[in-house]
Write a structure and sequence with these properties.
The complex is a heterodimer of chains A (693) and B (365). Chain A has 693 residues and is an all-alpha fold. Helix content of chain A is 84%, strand content 0%. In chain B, α5 packs across α6 and α10 crosses α14. The chains are: A mainly alpha (693), B alpha/beta (365). Bound molecules: adenosine-5'-triphosphate (ATP) and magnesium ion (MG).
Chain lengths: 693, 365
């Protein structure tokens, strides 16, 4: 009775259904224009409506925000004034002592040398401005984050509001909410301050909640049984127990604040170090932007290490048990140096303002500019070769499809009907072979890749794409995830952002794919070699602490503005998660399973592909998730160096202070991120359960 | 369920009493109880009904009395509701219905403030995973209950030091919990729970997280402390041998319900059902049967010869006395009055009878 072969289960039927639907759409898209171009008459002017609301809101409530802005300006101006008034040797002494306290003489030396670098490159003034911004925004966001964290820990209602807010804040690019902030708070450094305080709060909220939730119930109960009142239970028992986790939040907040201060320079630019990098980058003065970029990089590293050192409980414990002489020695020395510097500065102005003659910024940057030019010129053949191959063989086919991308100049042949037939024939043969051999996943991948590579993402009708994403989401996580995915895509469609979305998806997809190829291989290598792992770890750490902005500089230097540069920047930033997760996943495969495989007689290769990788897959998929998040985040920054896509839409909106467009495009990015996130998480959880992990 | 207190009834006053305690988890547990006292006609049927409606009955109609100075043990498999019960007694968990009387006063109607006062002065608790504050030293941890009461630093540290040396941790006052072994951490937990001189002492599987050797050590330590302190104790365990060694009476729970309450020998010799029998099946009878269970009462004057034993000793302890002799032992109570005698034949007879009964129970199980 059963006419279908037994292999055709429900999933297979769905895929075949999709294939039929896709074939139908591809075939008819010539006649039915709306299949490839969503009709403009059906576009919902959400952005315009938002702008109306925003205009009303701004005109009504602006005075409040301007007031806040004025209030915030006071502490910032004060800190700024103090930092500029202090003679540089005094500032150096204080920060070096702080670094010593946080991380011993190594960190102190590093800090000292870094600050010397800021002096001699002439970025002292800008660095102090940046420090002042961070100095005000960090306490602010820690206070906000801690308050919200505690509130949502204690009240379910608050939790229900805060949770989705955090999800959005983490995925909506900062540029998008810079616009309303800008309109409400006005231009100037305070905007950067507020933006960074908002941007840096979520990690603090998350870690506060996490820390409090992870306090073992027994510890709370032991407090209650000791006779604590509610308040005592919270302040004396739960909070201190949660402290290590909350401190992780503090560190993350600091790093986020710094990276946002840099980004905010784009709008608030007022002679801080971010502005310096941006403006030199725009003028293609890569020597200067490299010098300034290094300042950001070392600022990030110092802040990271110092904040971690200062909040390390173990370390603080050991420190508090030292004799007073060792505990206060470095502070006393720093104090003496500082006072001496302040006094001497009255006589020697060189101590107050680092004299221009001592700065070799100009010479160095000229030399660097020349050097970079030299390299670019000498190796232009190689550099162009890399760039062009990537463009013509990877990016273009993905975007506009082989049908348009293949032409004789680069490929050596044209896309004649014969070659097209060859392409399809080979693909169908391969597909048939996979089905025959039962390699389902591979068959699906080939089935999806073949038409998309042929017509490009641009040439793929939107119903096909939505159906593909919807089906994937359904298979991974059921109806709810599917509904979310489809609704997200429809949101972009009706807001007339389809093309931009596809651009972002394609660039991000290509970057993620390459990240996984590169990072995955490195991760596998690192999982099998302690030496490689030891070498990669600091590299990864550095790449992760780097504000995204800085990564653009070397890329631009060698490859100029363009899509390839954006791709490269995204890869540089997003390659870290695959390395980490693949290594972690492989290293944590249960030892007894590997032993059993060895005992059976598997070769190392077989152990990797048959045992370790399948078992590590759920973890690796979480890495994929992270990679996508990182990729999208960087994509927005990369909009600065010329990409077309959602990031660019946000960035353009920022330039025009178009709140509606900025929010809609920003939300679209967030929805792409959340769709990917939900689908992958659901899949990974299911897989993990199936593996009994 | 059978509550056979058997033997000599406990003459000590009741310290803690719980009456028809219910703890139901779920969307709307209150709907199952019209009155707060937890008295229902047929508890078994009521439990079944609650479960049918998708709620969890963590404790169902639990009632028992704990006498002053008694060690009352609650036993049962994982998930049987032991922790829930002990937390209901201290109101760390709010019972859905029922009454808990401490010194005759209902704990469940006490206000938040009164409850805190009761916990500050009358109760101490020891936790399975110790529940120590990771950011405080041993000394600070032990002194913590006094600190929250507002006792001055010098006074509370003096008291804490006293407790620390009571549990044998002198010299580790300034260590942090993570620097101590499991056994040492639990000593800290014990010292902390004793710091306010509580009358009621709750211990929730205090030794389960320790390895067997340390566990034995801690049990001996516990016995030593109790002979000095005479607390009223509710002790949770899932180890019958531990219950046997430490407890006066044992309450066996299953799926939130009490199956049997009784002395160790009652549970071994008269298990209420297979569940109880299974718990007790590996127990050596010589550790369970006490002198009072096998002695023949004597009338008239005590014979002058033969060594004397106390009625509370278990057979394991008196067996060596029979080596090389078959003369009976004289049983004397606390005042030295002769109350009975034990003959080797009597011992063998009762062991044989016990073995048969235990065998029968196992056969049924
Ligand atoms: N907060 C809660 N919400 C829902 N169910 C709970 C809750 N706390 C306990 N339970 C359920 O109540 C039952 C009894 O739990 P309890 O912790 O008292 O068991 P236990 O006998 O102490 O077990 P163990 O030996 O594992 O400690 C269990 O089925 C448990 O799942
Ligand atoms: Mg328990």
């Amino acid at each position: 009775m059963n006419g279908l072969p037994s292999k055709l289960d429900r999933t297979a039927v769905m895929w075949i259904g999709l294939a039929v639907f896709a074939a139908f759409c591809f075939a008819l898209r010539g006649e039915l224009r709306w299949l490839s171009d969503y009709p403009g008459t059906l576009v919902i002017p959400l952005a315009a409506w938002l702008n109306v609301v925003m205009t009303w809101f701004v005109s009504t409530f602006q005075f409040i925000f301007r007031g806040i802005s004025a209030v915030m300006d006071v502490p910032m101006a004060a800190i700024q004034a103090a930092l500029h008034w202090l003679p540089w040797p005094a500032t150096m002494a204080v920060f070096t002592a702080l670094a010593f306290r946080a991380g011993g003489w190594k960190l102190a030396l590093f800090t000292f040398l870094s600050m010397t670098y800021m002096l001699v490159t002439g970025y002292w003034f800008e660095s102090m401005n940046t420090l002042a911004l961070v100095g005000v925004s960090v306490p602010l966001s820690i206070a906000i984050g801690f308050g919200l964290g505690v509130l949502s820990f204690r009240s379910d209602t608050a939790r229900k509001i805060v949770d989705p807010m955090l999800d959005l804040m983490q995925t909506v690019p900062a540029f998008a909410y810079l616009i309303p902030i800008l309109l409400l708070f006005g231009f100037g450094p305070v905007v950067g301050l507020i933006a960074s305080a908002i941007y840096a709060a979520p990690p603090m909220v998350r870690n506060t909640i996490l820390g409090l939730e992870r306090v073992p119930p027994e510890i709370r109960e032991s407090g209650q049984m000791s006779g604590c009142t509610n308040r005592q239970t919270f302040w004396l028992v739960q909070l201190p127990t949660a402290m290590p986790q909350i401190m992780v939040g503090v560190n993350q907040s600091i790093m986020a604040a710094l990276s946002m201060v840099i980004i905010a320079a784009i709008i608030g630019g007022f002679g801080d170090i971010g502005w310096e990098v941006l403006s030199t980058m725009r003028k293609a003065q890569f020597g200067q932007s490299l010098l300034a970029g290094i300042v950001i990089a070392i600022l990030a590293m110092i802040m990271d290490r110092v904040s971690r050192g200062l909040t390390d409980l173990e370390r603080n414990l050991a420190y508090s048990q030292l004799p007073p002489k060792q505990r206060h020695g470095h502070w006393i020395v720093a104090g003496i140096v500082a006072v001496a510097a302040i006094l001497l500065a009255q006589v020697f102005p060189e101590l107050k303002v680092f004299p221009d003659e001592w700065i070799f910024h100009h010479a160095v940057s000229l030399w660097l500019n020349a050097g970079i030019d030299e390299i670019v010129r000498n190796y232009s053949a190689v550099l162009d070769g890399i760039k062009n191959s990537a463009n013509f063989f990877v990016l273009l086919p993905l975007r506009i499809g082989l049908i348009k991308a293949v032409y004789p100049k680069f490929w050596g042949f044209a896309m004649t009907p014969e070659i097209a037939a060859l392409y399809w024939g080979a693909a169908i043969l391969l597909l048939g072979y996979c089905v025959w051999k039962g390699k389902k996943s591979l068959a699906i991948v080939i089935g999806i890749a073949t038409p998309i590579l042929f017509w490009g993402l641009n040439g793929t009708p939107w119903p096909v794409f939505i159906a593909l994403v919807g089906l994937t989401a359904y298979l991974a996580g059921g109806w709810k995830v599917c509904a979310f995915a489809v609704a997200s895509l429809v949101f972009m469609l009706v807001n007339d952002l389809w093309e931009e979305t596809m651009r972002s998806v394609y660039l991000c997809g290509a970057a993620v794919f390459l990240c996984f190829v590169i990072g995955g291989s490195l991760g596998v290598w690192a999982a099998h070699s302690d030496r490689v792992s030891a070498i990669l770890r600091p590299v990864n750490d550095t790449l992760q602490t780097m504000p995204q902005f800085v990564i653009l500089i070397p890329v631009l230097m060698f490859f100029a503005v363009g899509e390839f540069s954006a791709l490269l920047a995204v890869i540089l930033y997003a390659v870290v998660p695959p390395i980490r997760y693949v290594e972690h996943g492989l290293r944590n495969v249960p030892a007894h399973v590997v032993e059993a495989a060895k005992q059976i007689g598997c070769t190392p290769r077989q152990i990797l592909f048959e045992v370790k990788l399948p078992l590590a897959l759920p973890v690796i998929m979480l890495g994929l998730n992270q990679t996508i998040m990182y990729g999208l985040a960087m994509l927005v920054i990369a909009a600065l160096v010329g990409t077309k896509g959602l990031g660019q839409a946000v960035y353009l909106a920022l330039g025009k202070a178009d709140t509606g467009m900025g929010l809609v495009a920003g939300l679209s990015i967030a929805l792409v991120a959340m769709t990917a996130d939900r689908t992958i998480q659901a899949w990974s959880n299911r897989k993990r359960k199936a593996l009994g992990l | 369920m059978s509550d056979s207190t058997g033997g000599a009834p406990d003459s000590r006053p009741v310290k803690l009493s719980c009456r028809n305690i219910w703890k139901v988890y779920g969307n709307d547990p209150a709907q199952f109880f019209d009155k707060g006292d937890g008295k229902v006609g047929d508890p078994d049927a009521h439990t079944a009904r609650i479960r049918d409606e998708g709620h969890i009955v963590a404790a169902g109609d639990v009632s028992f009395d704990v006498h002053a100075g008694e060690i009352f043990i609650i036993m049962g498999l994982s998930g049987s509701g032991k922790s829930t019960m002990v937390r209901c007694l201290s109101r760390l968990v709010e019972p859905t219905a029922g009454e808990v009387l401490l010194d005759g006063e209902n704990l469940l109607t006490a206000s938040e403030k009164e409850l805190i006062e009761i916990r500050r002065h009358k109760m101490g608790m020891v936790f399975q995973n110790f529940g120590l504050l990771p950011h405080q030293t041993v000394l600070q941890n032990v002194a913590f209950p006094l600190k929250v009461q507002g006792v001055g630093l010098a006074e509370r540290e003096a008291k804490a030091r006293e407790m620390i040396s009571l549990v044998g941790l002198d010299g580790r006052e300034n260590a942090f919990p993570r620097q101590l072994s499991g056994g040492q951490q639990q000593r800290v937990g014990i010292a902390r729970s004793l710091c306010v001189d509580p009358e009621m002492w709750f211990l929730d599987e205090p030794f389960s997280a320790l390895d067997p050797l340390i566990r034995r050590q801690m049990q001996d330590e516990f016995v030593r402390l109790q002979t000095m302190l005479h607390k009223t104790i509710v002790f949770i365990t899932h180890d019958f041998l531990e219950a046997l060694k430490l407890g006066d009476r044992i309450c066996i729970m299953k799926d939130g319900r009490v199956v049997q309450i009784g002395t160790p020998s009652e549970l071994v010799l008269n298990p209420a059902d297979d569940y109880v029998a299974e718990f007790t099946e590996d127990v050596p009878l010589v550790r369970v049967i006490r002198v009072r269970d096998v002695m023949e009462p004597i009338t008239g004057d005590a014979p002058g010869d033969g060594s004397s034993v106390s009625p509370d000793m278990c057979l394991e302890e008196i067996l060596p006395a029979f080596a090389g002799t078959d003369r009976p032992l004289v049983v004397r109570d606390g005042d030295g009055k002769a109350v009975g005698r034990v003959t080797p034949a009597g011992v063998v007879k009762s062991l044989a009878a016990g073995e048969k009964r235990q065998g029968a129970a196992q056969g049924a199980a």
